[in-house]
């Protein structure tokens, strides 16, 4: 009963509480705002849908960007791999090139003079020799006897006369110079074609070099391109000469490079005998504000000294002496009253250490030193050793050997061709260098007089090969096979070979002229020789014959 009564009371209370009259009046507007709520829900739904579209677009853009980045990364990675492969091939190619270059240099050092060991090595006759009729031994012998020997008989008497006069002139030069301030002049030496007995073209000109040294207490400190310091490629073959005091080395005392302070004194040098560049160095023929000997200053001093010396002894002679060429300061000419004249070159040089290699100020009548870098750069001449080498080899050759005859004939042909077509870069010194290489490469018996024709062909073949390769190496520089009897300085034997044709590599116009002159000389060879040869029956004339 109580439980039933409780349930009835709970039901009544629940009905009263949930009756609509108990809700506030504002709650009665809910049914009226239902459409507004639905509209807002639709707007919200639309904004959410737009937001969804925007997010989907951003996601799509991000995916596209990611794919582009991945593709770019793949391309970069592929290019890196390709670059690595390319770098690997480049490095491999460089290694192969360096190995080939090292092999070439080793082969060159061992074999660059071995040009006459095999006949095939000399068989380089190219298009230039096609159709060229080479004179035979009979024609060459007649030409040599009529043209060469007939015009060179007076050379010995001329050399003797020039040397005697030069000695007298230099003795007078020493007497007019101040022994305490001027350069000390030594005895002259004869070099070149006149003293190697192969000059054929007139006028005959004697080349004399005159070593000189500075007055005490000074000395010359010489430095060459192969002495260790770096020289540019265009300065190979040159050197510099520094004027130093005898009690210091070429680098100079440390007091010349460091401030010692007012209360410190160098124990070797005082301020009185300091060798800092100044007027004292200029008086010693150095370039302005340096200690390096100036070739132009030396030549000016030498010209003035020679003029003074001649004024002192001119009364003893019945001829006049004058400077013949403005571009060759040492070129002198003796003029007799009869109208005849004798030309000779007297060129000052500086001895390299205790050898017979000399720094020469100017090359008369030559393009060897035409492009000297500066007046403080001196070209090195090996003329004394070249003369000694020819004399040494001549002692081992058969009697009346044809080596000098070959050079004389080739020099004559080249000179005649230059008189027709003008000078070229090819010089007589190049021709002599060819002979020196072949003298070292060929056995002694190959220079017998009856082999004149074959050896002349060898010289032309060798020269054509050098012109084709643009390489003609100096005979002494880099040549480890120089006879020990000559006493040649080892520093030059160990140096890199010096290519005498290097200046023509970049100057194509001069190179083209040189090649054209050589080809023209070959084509005109028979005509030039026959012009000075007595008539010989045609049956004796042959083409090129291999030995």
Automatic annotation (TrEMBL):
<feature type="coiled-coil region">
    <location>
        <begin position="52"/>
        <end position="82"/>
    </location>
</feature>
<dbReference type="InterPro" id="IPR046906">
    <property type="entry name" value="Mab-21_HhH/H2TH-like"/>
</dbReference>
<protein>
    <recommendedName>
        <fullName>Inositol 1,4,5-trisphosphate receptor-interacting protein</fullName>
    </recommendedName>
</protein>
<dbReference type="GO" id="GO:0004860">
    <property type="term" value="F:protein kinase inhibitor activity"/>
</dbReference>
<dbReference type="InterPro" id="IPR026250">
    <property type="entry name" value="ITPRIP-like"/>
</dbReference>
<dbReference type="GO" id="GO:0005886">
    <property type="term" value="C:plasma membrane"/>
</dbReference>
<keyword id="KW-1003">Cell membrane</keyword>
<dbReference type="GO" id="GO:0005640">
    <property type="term" value="C:nuclear outer membrane"/>
</dbReference>
<dbReference type="InterPro" id="IPR024810">
    <property type="entry name" value="MAB21L/cGLR"/>
</dbReference>
<keyword id="KW-0325">Glycoprotein</keyword>
<dbReference type="Pfam" id="PF20266">
    <property type="entry name" value="Mab-21_C"/>
</dbReference>
<keyword id="KW-0472">Membrane</keyword>
<keyword id="KW-1133">Transmembrane helix</keyword>
<keyword id="KW-0732">Signal</keyword>
<keyword id="KW-0175">Coiled coil</keyword>
<keyword id="KW-0539">Nucleus</keyword>
<comment type="function">
    <text>Enhances Ca(2+)-mediated inhibition of inositol 1,4,5-triphosphate receptor (ITPR) Ca(2+) release.</text>
</comment>
<comment type="similarity">
    <text>Belongs to the ITPRIP family.</text>
</comment>
<keyword id="KW-0812">Transmembrane</keyword>
<feature type="domain" description="Mab-21-like HhH/H2TH-like">
    <location>
        <begin position="404"/>
        <end position="477"/>
    </location>
</feature>
<feature type="signal peptide">
    <location>
        <begin position="1"/>
        <end position="20"/>
    </location>
</feature>
């Amino acid at each position: 009963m109580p439980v039933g009564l409780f349930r009835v009371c709970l039901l009544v209370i629940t009905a009263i509480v949930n009756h609509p009259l108990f809700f506030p009046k504002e709650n009665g507007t809910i049914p009226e705002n239902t459409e507004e709520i639905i509209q807002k829900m639709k707007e919200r739904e639309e904004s959410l849908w737009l937001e969804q579209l925007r997010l989907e677009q951003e996601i799509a853009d991000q995916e596209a960007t990611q794919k582009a980045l991945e593709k770019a990364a793949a391309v970069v990675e592929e290019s890196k791999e390709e670059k690595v492969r390319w770098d690997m091939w480049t490095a491999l190619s460089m290694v192969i090139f360096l190995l080939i270059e090292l092999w070439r240099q080793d082969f060159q050092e061992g074999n660059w003079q071995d040009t006459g060991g095999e006949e095939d090595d000399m068989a380089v006759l190219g298009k230039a020799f096609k159709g060229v009729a080479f004179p035979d031994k009979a024609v060459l012998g007649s030409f040599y006897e009529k043209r060469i020997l007939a015009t060179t008989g007076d050379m010995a008497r001329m050399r003797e006369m020039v040397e005697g006069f030069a000695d007298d002139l230099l003795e007078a030069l020493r007497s007019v110079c101040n022994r305490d301030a001027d350069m000390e002049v030594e005895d002259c030496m004869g070099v070149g074609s006149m003293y190697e007995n192969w000059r054929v073209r007139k006028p005959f000109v004697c080349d004399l070099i005159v070593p000189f040294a500075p007055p005490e207490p000074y000395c010359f400190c010489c430095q060459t391109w192969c002495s260790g310091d770096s020289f540019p490629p265009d300065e190979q073959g040159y050197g510099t000469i520094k004027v130093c005091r005898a009690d210091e080395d070429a680098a100079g005392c440390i007091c010349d490079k460091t401030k010692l302070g007012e209360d410190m004194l160098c124990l070797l040098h005082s301020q009185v005998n300091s060798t800092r560049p100044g007027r004292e160095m200029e008086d010693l023929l150095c370039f302005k504000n340096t200690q390096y000997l100036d070739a132009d200053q030396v030549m000016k001093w030498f010209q003035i000294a020679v003029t003074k010396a001649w004024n002192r002894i001119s009364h003893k002679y019945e001829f006049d002496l004058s400077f013949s060429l403005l571009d060759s300061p040492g070129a002198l000419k003796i003029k007799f009253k009869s109208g005849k004249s004798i030309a000779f070159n007297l060129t000052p040089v500086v001895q390299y250490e205790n050898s017979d290699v000399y720094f020469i100020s100017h090359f008369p009548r030559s393009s060897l030193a035409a492009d000297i870098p500066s007046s403080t750069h001196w070209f090195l001449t090996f003329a004394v050793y070249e003369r000694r080498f020819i004399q040494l080899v001549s002692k081992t050759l058969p009697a009346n050997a044809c080596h000098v005859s070959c050079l004389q004939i080739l020099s004559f042909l080249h000179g005649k061709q230059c008189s027709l077509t003008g000078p070229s870069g090819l010089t007589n010194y190049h021709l002599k260098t060819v002979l020196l290489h072949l003298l070292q490469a060929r056995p002694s018996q190959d220079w017998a007089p009856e082999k004149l024709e074959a050896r002349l062909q060898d010289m032309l073949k060798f020269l054509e090969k050098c012109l084709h390769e643009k390489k003609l190496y100096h005979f002494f520089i880099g040549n480890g096979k120089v006879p020990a009897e000559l006493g040649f300085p080892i520093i030059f034997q160990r140096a890199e070979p010096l290519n005498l044709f290097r200046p023509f590599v970049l100057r194509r116009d001069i190179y083209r002229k040189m090649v054209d002159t050589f080809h023209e000389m070959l084509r005109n060879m028979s005509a030039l020789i026959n012009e000075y040869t007595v008539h010989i029956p045609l049956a004796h004339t042959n083409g090129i014959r291999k030995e």
